């Protein structure tokens, strides 16, 4: 720790060295050997800037202890679990956001770290290439984030913007709870709507039918399905099953997500699935590119067309546009 230069952090670690050594040993008992160079580097590059920002808000020794304790214990968990070794850049960018929101870090150090880590876990699962982008987006709004509820809502909105399509339906209500300044910052950052009320209304921005790609894939190659799947619509939602597993499909302009839907019986999805001899009604001349006899199921909502093919493990998506 000789590279640490912040006096308040040096004092905290020195005055409570017995505690920190105990936590370190307990973590080694739980996780095995923890690489000291990685811990030292993380403490200087990430923990120290966060503590420095926290000290600027509240320099009371008991508050510094609370913040450093939370950062240290959560750091040991990250290192011990292997997450920091695998996703070091992402976690570094995310944790340094705490230095941009010191008022929340001082009040809720453990909760803020937990929220950041939860977002990264979800991004790694559904949009693994967008973790750094999410951190950058949060950074654009950090000065306007005043409460932990602000942070939760803004975090969800930008996670949706990074591909977590299943979050969109709840965001209109969430958005209305934010201050006008924060709302405007988000609208300016995302830049997809003419006015605030339309930001989350439409799944797609195009007014024309457009192929939006595929989702799914064979389970043996990082996909989802053991057998070619079929689709069915239940209420407002699209479900898909390969006869073994069930998922709910969410798709919009920013991403496509399959969420496990264990409560929906696979056999039921298969039994109510519908196929079509032609997709000409929706796709026009593009219909000619699809071999109609191979279509195994089709779902059409007010803005999205999805179909499956008999020998394919993928779902094929088209946006139908917004009138």
Describe it for me?
The chain is α+β, with helices and mostly antiparallel strands. The longest helix has 22 residues, at 36-57. Helix content is 51%, strand content 15%. Helix 1 crosses helix 4 (61-81) and helix 8 packs parallel to helix 10 (148-161). Strand 6 and strand 7 (304-309) form a beta hairpin. The strands form two sheets. A four-stranded antiparallel beta sheet has the order 1-8-7-6, with no helix packed on it.
Provide keyphrases for this structure:
four-stranded antiparallel beta sheet, 323 residues, 14 helices, single chain, alpha+beta
Q: Characterize the biggest β-sheet.
A: 4 strands, antiparallel
Q: Please provide the count of β strands.
A: 8
Content of β-strand:
5-15%
**SSE string, helices as H and strands as E:** HHHHHHHHHHHHEEEEEHHEEE
Given the C-alpha coordinates, what overall shape results?
A: elongated
First-last Cα distance: 61 Å
Share of residues in helices? 40-55%
Helix and strand content put the structural class at alpha+beta
**Strand order in space, largest sheet:** 1-8-7-6
Give the uncertain stretches in residue-range form: none
**What's the number of helices?**
14
Mean pLDDT across every amino acid position: 93
Rg, alpha carbons: 24 Å
